[in-house]
Write a structure and sequence with these properties.
Blueprint: E1 5-8, H1 10-22, E2 29-33, H2 35-39, H3 43-52, E3 57-60, H4 63-71, E4 77-80, H5 89-94, E5 97-98, E6 100-101, H6 104-116, E7 122-127, H7 142-151, E8 155-161, H8 172-194, E9 201-205, H9 207-212, E10 220-221, H10 237-242, E11 253-258, E12 261-265, E13 270-271, E14 277-278, E15 283-288, E16 305-308, E17 311-316, E18 324-327, E19 340-344, H11 359-365, H12 370-375, E20 382-385
Parallel strand pairs: 1-20, 2-3, 2-10, 3-4, 4-5, 6-7, 7-8, 8-9, 9-10
Antiparallel strand pairs: 1-11, 11-19, 12-15, 13-14, 15-18, 16-17, 16-19, 17-18
């Protein structure tokens, strides 16, 4: 087996789900986001664990993601958060995937295909755009569209959904923006009720709002990044503790490889494409068989550091498609060929073999977010489920 791997710690995912559930009000449902291959953490394993731990829904982004889960035996309701095209509607219906609808054209086309397939009424969620600006009807269009759904012969309104744009920010102006989004969503849901239609499951809170703003939990929350062990931007562990909220997360993925070669470098010798790094003194360079085709992005050099035997070493030169190079210093006897090199993973100060960097640390080094760090780990990196 290739030495470049992503170790998936299932018990850490279970821990995170339990931590989330501790913070939910009684009766609030859980929709676990397993889209984008479970944020890189293996969608099928994430779905199976979420299912066994009582999730009411699993959130996906494409119809193909839903088909993969159904083929793996997942029975839990699937909520499709991104639009799909009419050519996918039949597959969506046959795999019992619940889509978001937000205009009459989509409602009409979906209703027709359900009829053509002679299926019973298919569930949909009405998406409301309260300020994210991506998809959804405007709040004052919610009631008229709910009537269209209600009057269609083959669809049933199962719920209403919106998405917050800045709920992971703790600035006063962004908190106020989130509050206004929530107010608009409540108004939309109430207008549907006043029209004599049950709005179904109302959901607006993802990772940050679900924990930091419990008043926004409504009927169901949709945690994503916190499932996989990372806090949502400014809603950090320290911030939550100051609000007397306990959420003890554990990173689920460890991205690792091994030292494939150790090469002596004299002063003035360069490494990799473009000769962007030239040794200023004699040193040793370790070659790691991991590169941007694995998710270790080219733009991460320089700046990235990896952990080998409990010490941090800088990546030097440009990261290649399949390899990268690390400066381990002159006369280094601590690093040997085939030693484990950890890109990121759970940090445990008591464990000398633990990583010094998690995905948040890598994100800070490379000016991005932990979401991207994990989802960039490509499919050619074998997921080892533990």
């Amino acid at each position: 087996m290739r030495c470049t791997q992503a170790i998936i710690y299932s018990d850490n995912l279970r821990n995170n789900i339990n931590e989330i559930k501790k913070n939910l009000k009684k009766g609030v449902k859980l929709c676990c986001a397993v889209k984008a291959d479970g944020y890189g953490n293996d969608a099928v394993n994430s779905a199976k664990i979420s299912e066994e731990m009582g999730a009411s829904y699993l959130a996906i982004a494409t119809v193909d993601e839903g088909v993969e889960l159904r083929n793996a035996g997942i029975k839990t309701d699937l909520l499709l958060l991104s639009p799909c095209c009419p050519s996918e509607f039949s597959t969506l219906i046959e795999n019992n995937i619940t889509p978001l609808v937000f205009d009459e054209e989509i409602i009409s086309e979906l209703n027709k295909i359900v009829s053509d397939l002679k299926h019973s009424k298919h569930p949909v969620f009405l998406a409301v755009d309260t300020g994210m600006g991506r998809i959804g009807c405007l709040p004052d269009q919610a009631a008229p569209l709910a009537k269209v759904i209600n009057n269609s012969s083959n669809l049933i309104l199962k719920g209403m959904i919106t998405h917050f744009a800045v709920s992971d920010s703790i600035t006063p102006e962004n908190k106020e923006y989130t509050k206004e989004q929530f107010t608009q969503f409540k108004k939309a849901c109430d207008s549907v009720k006043k029209a004599g239609i049950d709005p179904g499951i109302r959901t607006c809170a993802a990772s940050a709002a679900a924990i930091a703003m419990p008043e926004y939990q409504l009927d169901m929350v949709r945690p994503g990044i916190i499932l996989y062990g990372y806090y949502a931007d400014e809603v950090t562990k320290d911030y939550l503790e100051k609000q007397n909220i306990s959420l003890n997360l554990k990173p689920v993925m460890q991205f690792q490889t091994q030292v494939a070669a150790i090469r002596p470098f004299n002063k003035g010798k360069s490494v990799s494409y473009g000769r962007t790094w030239i040794s200023t003194k004699p040193t040793l360079v370790a070659v790691l068989p991991v590169g941007y085709a694995d998710g270790l992005l080219r733009r991460n050099s320089p700046g990235l550091k990896v952990t080998i035997n409990g010490k941090a070493y800088p990546v030097v030169g440009r990261i290649c498609m399949d390899q990268c190079m690390v400066d381990i210093g002159e006369n280094n006897t601590d690093v040997k060929r085939w030693d484990k090199a950890i890109i990121f993973g759970p940090k445990d100060p008591k464990d000398k073999e633990s990583s010094l960097f998690d995905a948040d640390d890598i994100a800070k080094m490379t000016n991005t977010i932990s979401y991207e760090v994990m989802t960039c780990v490509s499919k050619r990196v074998k997921r080892i489920i533990q």
